[in-house]
Amino acid sequence: MYIAISTLFEIEQVLLRNNSTLKNYKNMPIPYVDSVSSSNNRLITEELYYDILVMKTEFDHMFLALTNEQRHIFLDIMGAVKENKGGVFFVYGYRGTGKTFLWNTISAAIRCDGHIVLNVASSGIASLLLLGGRTTHSRFIIPFELKKDSVCKISRDGDLARLLRKTSLIIWDEAPMVHKHAFEALDQSLKDVFRFENSSNSDILF
């Protein structure tokens, strides 16, 4: 019995990381374990599961290695995050100019403060280079067949929505590689998610 429960627990963890659950599969047994109960948001727990002391040490080294241009971008973005201003920043640079290093430095800075940053990329390979990276389609459930009125399959009162509402920053690497409908789908979905708590958020970009 212990092995069965342990196996189900591991399967549930994998499914939760991919925005699913054993509850979605008919006749599948559910592990009755407190840590995977509906009252515990595994997505948020996973994004906060970083050793802050180790992350602080890594950030100190990375920050010192930033170029003047990278540091300027870093300060602009971090200023908006800390003041909760919101906004959209587009950083362009050729391959090898240190964009990924900059993303990881910003991620470490936010995680040092115990906050959440979601690192995503348009391709699987690029996502592997980001700390805790995922593909955008996987993280935000963006449809593969995009239309003008497409939206992401995010329940307003689900775990992913709660994660998004607690997120301080989303970093999207290789963003120009996807169709504009992907951004529009995510933007519309984020408005819907945040409107659930405050109707005035429906007019804010992302």
Structure description:
- With 206 residues, the protein is mainly α.
- The chain contains 9 helices and 3 strands, in the order H-H-H-H-H-E-H-E-H-H-E-H.
- The chain has a 3-stranded parallel β-sheet.
- Helix 3 packs antiparallel against helix 5 and helix 4 packs parallel to helix 5.
- About 3% of the residues have low confidence.
Which structural traits does this protein have?
2 domains, 9 helices, 48% helix, 3-stranded parallel β-sheet, 206 residues, Rossmann fold, mainly alpha
Summarize the structure.
By secondary structure, the chain is mainly α. The chain has helices spanning 2-17, 42-47, 52-64, 68-82, 99-112, 124-128, 136-140, 159-166, 180-195, and strands at 116-121, 134-135, 167-173.
